[in-house]
Design brief:
Length: 439
């Protein structure tokens, strides 16, 4: 199987799924993994869930483990440019040849599962491929990000060393429930007997998560009580701070923006301290690992005239965090937003935090298999009703070009909303602007 054949196969599975509310949907994933030899049980894992920050927190944990000399797997979703990004070993994505080889080897298990339970979905197949890749690479540990929710997510078949629920906000309400309380119950479903559950959730979600964890026999650790954060003088395009726990003080210099990353770092450190001694990285390894952190598409800044920020903010929790971070990081600057939002999202709630900034907006669209975006004209109407300066340009590259051309040199262009538009425009930017500047 070539990578092109593997990619075509994966795209053909996008619409393969059980109903997301079906209570027995884990049965197919369990049967699929059993046919693969239960690779997810062959190495220690760390399970990372939550509404926002789970990808960043997972990446921080993996970076610390790698810096400590542990061979580390990392599975995150969604990806920005390539499905290969969902499977990383020691910070590197697997290559196309390895991906195709693994998928080909999985075909007998896929076929047998399809015959009995229906063909594994796109998400299930990519998750299983990560599990198999980590087993073959003989990783010392793997950090696994939850896909959606927790209780019925395919990742909930692992037996982790520690579980994490970063926070709880309104997202995927069609799947998880329409209130914070309902969503918290679903996310807390990753709690397991004897496995510490670390959370930075606020009330009312915190109380629900703690209650469910206690009922499951999982020790509950609140980040707000287990760690304190103290600011340090920072570089212009990074941030320095200390995180103090009962065990240690970590002096961190993150080469990433967004004050919300400080909470994510504290969550990662509290979780790392729950690992068995043989896996737990030293303070120096943690500081070294986070000092080289790279998180594409998360408050990712490229200086220039104007500068540009790429940030996936596809739910109200993420957009509120981005708006706050932009205001803190670039005070008294004007922003030129390029935004596309997935059709399943609450566009009004996603956009609302941005309207408090000094900003103009260009609304655009994206194209992705099995996904659709909100019509840019609808987003334009929402903005205009809120008294915002806005226009609609369906082609995202044209939208970016217009925003850059019209923005003042001191302004910040912000590409945000759906993962698909951020990934597409970030890829275009790296190829057509960053690479050309280097040459």
């Amino acid at each position: 199987m070539t990578y092109r054949e593997a990619s075509d196969y994966m795209l053909s599975t996008i619409n393969e799924s059980f109903s997301r509310r079906q209570p027995h949907r884990l049965e197919r994933m369990r049967a699929f993994l059993q046919r693969l030899g239960d690779p997810h049980l062959r190495y220690p894992t760390i399970h990372v869930g939550g509404t926002s920050g789970k990808g960043s927190t997972a990446t921080m944990i993996a970076a610390a483990l790698t810096a400590a000399g542990k061979r580390t797997g990392l599975h995150t979703k969604p990806h920005l440019a390539s499905m290969l990004e969902r499977t990383r070993i020691d910070g590197r994505t697997i290559d196309e040849e390895t991906f195709a080889e693994l998928l080909a080897a999985m075909q007998p298990a896929i076929g047998a599962t399809a015959a009995d339970d229906g063909r594994p979905s796109y998400y299930e197949t990519l998750l299983a491929l990560s599990f198999v890749a980590f087993e073959r690479a003989e990783v010392d540990a793997a950090v696994i990000e939850v896909g959606i929710g927790g209780t019925l997510d395919g990742t909930n078949l692992i037996q982790p060393e520690v579980s994490i629920v970063t926070n709880v906000g309104l997202d995927h309400t069609d799947v998880l429930g329409e209130t914070i309380e309902e969503i918290a119950r679903d996310k807390a479903g990753i709690a397991k007997p004897g496995v510490a559950l670390v959370s930075d959730a606020r009330e009312p979600a915190r109380g629900i998560i703690q209650s469910i964890a206690t009922g499951a026999g999982a020790p509950f650790i609140a980040v707000a009580e287990a760690a304190t954060i103290a600011a340090r003088p920072s570089e212009m395009y990074g941030q320095s701070f200390a995180v103090t726990t009962d065990a240690a003080t970590y002096e961190l210099a993150l080469p990433v923006l967004g004050r919300f990353q400080q909470r994510n770092a504290a969550t990662a450190l509290v979780a790392l301290e729950q690992l068995r001694p043989a896996l737990r990285p030293s303070v120096a390894a943690v500081e070294r690992g986070l000092g080289g952190l790279v998180i594409p598409g998360r408050m990712e800044f490229f200086p220039g005239f104007p500068g540009i920020v790429f940030d996936v903010a596809h739910n109200p929790d993420k957009s509120a965090g981005l708006a706050q971070s932009l205001a803190e990081t670039f005070p008294e600057r004007r922003f030129a937003f390029i935004v596309a939002i997935g059709e399943s999202k609450n566009a009004v709630d996603v956009l609302r935090p941005f309207f408090g900034l000094s900003a103009s907006f260009i609304f655009t669209a994206f194209q992705a298999p099995g996904r659709s975006s909100v019509n840019p004209q609808r987003l334009l109407n929402i903005a205009e009703q809120a008294g915002q300066s806005a226009r609609a340009i369906a082609d995202p590259i044209e939208a970016l070009s217009v925003a850059r051309r019209n923005a003042d040199a001191a302004a910040i262009v912000v590409v945000t909303g759906s993962t698909f538009v951020v990934g597409a425009l970030r890829g275009w930017w790296l190829t057509n602007v960053v690479e050309r500047a280097r040459n």
